[in-house]
Design goal:
heterodimer; A: about 290 residues; alpha/beta; five-stranded parallel β-sheet; four-stranded antiparallel β-sheet; B: alpha+beta; about 20% strand; rod-shaped
Chain lengths: ~290, ~725
């Protein structure tokens, strides 16, 4: 299945069943309109309880779930519905102001989140990605596929092992990242990083970082329990060896700009802190 | 006729009027008997013949019974004709009573014809002459005393100098020693020690005063000499100038206590010698007039000082009654001009940074051209005054090398006389006051003293105005800072709503975007298209309302108070924060009492206070809670608005510091919200009360005075 090209509105999964849960009538109905024209089967719910009721009566491929709703927040709907609908992927819709709740939602098992307002093609892309993943998972769970898999295993037992990835993963717990060592979200103090979206928020406000700056930040965040030398960081960024002094020269301008963007007081950094003679350490205040 | 007593060897002219030849011969014989005295006897037998020669005799021997006159009538006729000639009556025994009557009326003596001896006759004649002379002298002195008294009365009856001079001169010209055509003039020293004529008599010659002034006081003329020498000058005959001043000139210096005040010039048409008593009289008269003049001058001086002090007092009050700098300057120059009779006046203030003098205020000729002009701080007379801290009085400015002539070119004024005084305040010279061109040509020391006193008052008034201006500027800055702080805090409060506002804005934006994408990307039916466009339109409306609501709140307050419905203000704040409430899972209980009296308030500022209290309340309820907002009347009759939360409450030890600036218990707080809220409510004449119980919650109550009977105006936030 080819991925949906950005800027176009089309689906590879006509007939997919989607539930839109949002108390905002105009938003809900306009989104439903787009999805219907794409060929999805759409149902709408205006509140958390109504969504739960729909989920108890029907099966959906994807649920687009607004987080902030009067009465019952989206996270609560998610918490209650997931065990009841293990074959449904939940996509959380939220504004920047409630991104923290979206992260909680992801950790509770939501497939992904959407920040409002998002371009229609982005919404469709995320939904299509979910549907792609769902289709792949279903295919894996199909009996014929299972049979093929068993045969392959047998062949492997007779011959040299070709791959270690043959173990069956739980079919209904798809994840964006194949590397379990990498958390998607990094949250430290007022800083939130969504590695998957290359999104950085400082005090809930998005900050535009260059790819190098983003790499420096995430590398230091990953290694936040220790001091990272400049040569180590340069090696990670550029893939070649530099002595400490040259590495510092290489990094100086990037570190400076990164601090300007994320530090409350760039002259007295609290996140990217220089440890004299040894390198950098991320947010020592954490320890 | 001789008017003084005779020396013993002098020849005495005797007129004998006797109709009896024997009696006449007898008298003649008796006179011839008298040793050491020569009598020249003239005998007449009738009254008529006697009167014809009466004036040429030293004494008259008169028989009362004459052919052409009898008895007392005879005496009366002769005495009337020659009142200054002593008369001795010759009578018989029977005329004794008549003779006594005549003696009472002016006759010097009477002799009984039959008893007359030579010695008796000679003694009677001598006594008569002596007595007559003594009487005449006495009369003359008496007359002079009367005149002196008149002059003294005249000079002391008025303290007006001109009146004193006129009256005195008129009285002097009535002296016997002067003649009917006599004229007089008085010159007094005026300003700058130049004599100027002040009085001329007779009045019809007044117009000559100015002409005569120069002519009369030319070096060498009698009045000038009298002024030079301080002595009386009496000319013997004609002297210049031309009529009506020809004749004999008597110039009397007017002196008191050795101080020369001026000169009195008198002229009489016919020159005649003056007797020592006349000279004494003239000295006494001139002294008396000098005293009168001095009194009048002292009075005039005292009056001028009293007037000046009153003016200065009034000026001082006038100057210090305003704190407006421009008004002070205007009053200073107006008063300077009025008080000193100056054609123009200016105040120059020092600009210490530019080291220049600035014409801060100018009045009179050329004012428009000079106002605001600058000149170097050391230029001109003003510059000299500024540098030396000394006043300048000059009545011939053009000759003064310090004078900055360019100023005259700019103003168009030709400066003749000038007064300049430094403005000194708190030991610093801040500028100069100048007065130019006295209306009477010259400034006096008196004027300088006046301007010096005025300058002191002006310096104080200017300093007061400067301090007031600085104070006002300070207040303005403080008020500006306060407004800025209030505005910053308001924006900070708006920022606290930002998360919920983002949510409120992003939802309609998403709906609008979806609707438009749908119409643009899919073949939708007209009905469907209409439906989505209407939906987008509704969302746009919603956004507009929301944005205007936020902008309304966040805009800078104009600080104007009006009658406000307090519930409307509360409701608007609640609308603004309702999403925030929702997101924080806070349940709102609203209990607003209807029909509350309006309050006099700035709705925007009150809204800021309520929002701040509501946000604080919500932030005190982590994980949700109950917010109670109520309004009503308190027991004090004021309008109360209470905001209660069900949060964790305020620590008792923090209660005393809640409204202190920079006190905060929040990690991100500025500590200004409550302090500014309290300040805003105080400016409305209200208070904020707080009550808190740990783990139960906190209630803030805003108490504001109500305006019963008034109805609220526009109550926008």
């Amino acid at each position: 299945m080819s991925p949906t090209a950005p800027g176009t509105l089309q689906t590879n999964h006509p007939g997919a069943r989607i539930l839109i849960v949002d108390d905002e009538r105009a938003l809900r109905r306009s989104l439903a309109g787009i999805f219907r024209h794409l060929g999805y089967e759409i149902e709408e719910a205006t509140s958390g309880p109504e969504a739960l009721e729909c989920l108890s009566c029907s099966t959906y491929d994807v649920v687009l779930l607004d987080l902030k709703m009067p009465g019952m927040p989206g996270t609560e709907v998610l918490r209650r519905a997931r065990p009841e609908a293990p074959q449904t992927l939940f996509i959380i819709m939220t504004a920047y102001g409630t991104l923290e709740s979206a992260i909680i939602g992801i950790r509770q098992g939501a497939f992904d989140y959407l920040l409002k307002p998002s371009p229609a093609h982005e919404i469709v892309r995320v939904v299509e990605t979910a549907l792609d993943q769902l289709a792949a998972a279903r295919q894996e769970a199909h009996p014929i596929h299972l049979l093929e898999q068993a045969l392959a295993n047998l062949r492997e037992e007779q011959g040299p092992p070709a791959s270690a990835s043959g173990s069956m993963s739980p079919p209904m717990s798809p994840s964006l990242s194949a590397d379990p060592s990498q958390e998607r979200f990094l949250t430290v103090a007022d800083l939130v990083v969504d590695r998957a979206r290359a999104l950085v928020l400082v005090q809930n406000k998005p900050v535009e970082l260059t790819p190098t700056e983003f790499e420096i930040l995430t590398y230091l965040m990953d290694k936040r329990d220790r001091i990272v030398s400049a040569s180590d960081l340069a090696q990670h960024l550029r893939g070649y060896e530099l002595d400490e002094r040259d590495a510092r020269v290489l990094l100086r301008a990037h570190i400076h700009r990164l601090r300007q963007k994320i530090e409350p007081e760039p002259s007295k950094p609290r996140y990217v802190v220089t440890v004299h003679g040894r390198g950098f350490r991320f947010f020592p205040g954490l320890a | 006729m001789r008017t003084s007593s005779l020396p013993p060897e002098t020849e005495i002219r005797v007129l004998l009027i006797e109709d009896n030849p024997a009696e006449a011969r007898l008298i003649e014989e008796r006179l011839r008997e008298v040793p050491y005295t020569s009598f020249v006897l003239c005998m007449k037998s009738t009254l008529h013949a006697g009167l014809e020669v009466a004036s040429d005799s030293d004494v008259i021997l008169l028989d009362l019974s004459l052919p052409d006159s009898q008895g007392y009538e005879t005496f009366a006729s002769v005495h009337a004709a020659v009142p200054d000639t002593p008369l001795i009556l010759l009578t018989g025994f029977e005329d004794d009573r008549l003779a006594l009557t005549a003696v009472r009326h002016g006759a010097q003596d009477y002799l009984i014809k039959d008893e007359v001896t030579g010695a008796m006759l000679a003694r009677a004649i001598r006594y008569a002459i002596e007595r007559q002379g003594a009487e005449k002298t006495l009369q003359q002195r008496n007359k002079n005393l009367v005149l002196l008294n008149r002059i003294a009365t005249a000079t002391s009856s008025s303290l007006e100098l001109q009146e004193t001079l006129d009256t005195a001169l008129e009285a002097v010209l009535n002296l016997d020693l002067l003649q009917e055509d006599a004229t007089g003039i008085i010159f007094l020293y005026g300003n700058a020690q130049e004599a100027a004529s002040l009085a001329v008599y007779p009045p019809q010659l007044q117009h000559l005063a100015c002409q005569s002034e120069l002519a009369a006081l030319k070096p060498g003329v009698p009045c000038h000499r009298a002024l030079q020498t301080g002595e009386m000058i009496i000319t013997s005959s004609h002297v210049e100038p031309a009529p009506p001043w020809e004749g004999q000139c008597l110039c009397l210096p007017l002196k008191t206590h050795g101080h020369l005040l001026g000169v009195m010039g008198l002229r009489r048409g016919r020159p005649a010698p003056l007797s020592p008593p006349d000279v004494d009289l003239l000295r006494a008269v001139s002294s008396q007039i000098a005293i009168g003049i001095e009194n009048a001058q002292l009075y005039e001086q005292t009056r001028r000082w009293a007037g000046a002090l009153a003016t200065l007092n009034r000026t001082g009050q006038l100057l210090t009654s305003t704190l407006d700098r421009d008004e002070v300057l205007r009053r200073v120059i107006d008063e300077t001009r009025a008080m000193l009779h100056a054609e123009a006046a200016s105040v120059l203030l020092l600009d210490p940074i530019a080291e220049e003098l600035v014409f801060a205020a100018v009045a009179g000729t050329g004012a428009g051209a000079l106002h605001g002009r600058r000149m170097p701080a050391d230029a001109g007379i003003a510059g000299w005054v500024l540098c030396e801290w000394q006043p300048v009085l000059t009545n011939d400015v053009q000759e003064d090398p310090r004078f900055f002539k360019r100023i005259d070119k700019i103003s168009g004024l030709t400066t003749q006389s000038l007064l300049a005084v430094p403005l000194i305040c708190k030991g610093e010279v801040i500028g100069v006051i100048e007065a130019l061109n006295h209306h009477d040509r010259i400034f006096s020391e008196h004027d300088l003293k006046l301007l010096t006193v005025l300058a002191d008052a002006a310096a104080i008034a200017l300093e007061n105005a400067r301090l007031y201006e600085a104070e006002r500027e300070q207040r303005r800055l403080v008020e500006h800072s306060r407004t800025q702080l209030v505005q910053s805090e308001k924006l900070a409060a708006t920022g606290r709503l930002a998360a919920s506002l983002a949510h409120e804005i992003n939802n309609p934006l998403q709906a609008i975007h979806n609707s438009l994408q749908l119409i643009l990307s899919f073949p939708v039916s007209p009905e469907e298209q209409k439906m989505y466009l209407e939906m987008a339109d509704e969302e746009v409306e919603r956004l507009i309302h929301m944005v205007s609501r936020i902008l309304d709140f966040a805009r800078r307050s104009k600080g104007e108070q009006q009658l406000v419905d307090i519930n409307a203000v509360v409701n608007k704040v609640l609308i603004l924060s309702e999403k925030y409430l929702e997101h924080r899972h806070v349940i709102l209980e609203r209990k607003l009492q209807g029909d509350l009296h309006p309050v006099m308030a700035n709705p925007n500022e009150l809204g800021q206070v309520f929002l701040n209290l509501i946000l604080n309340a919500m932030e005190a309820m982590e994980g949700g809670g109950r917010l109670r907002v109520s309004s009503g009347y308190g027991s004090d009759g004021k309008v109360h608005v209470s905001i209660s939360d069900s949060g964790k409450g305020i620590q008792p030890q923090h209660m005393d510091y809640l409204f202190e600036p920079f006190f905060t218990t929040k990690a991100q707080g500025t500590g200004l919200g409550l302090s500014i809220s309290y300040n805003l409510v105080e400016r409305h004449g209200g208070t904020i009360e707080v009550e808190s119980r740990p783990d139960e919650g906190t209630t803030f109550t805003v108490c504001l005075p109500s305006h019963a009977g008034a109805s609220p105006g526009g109550d926008s936030l």
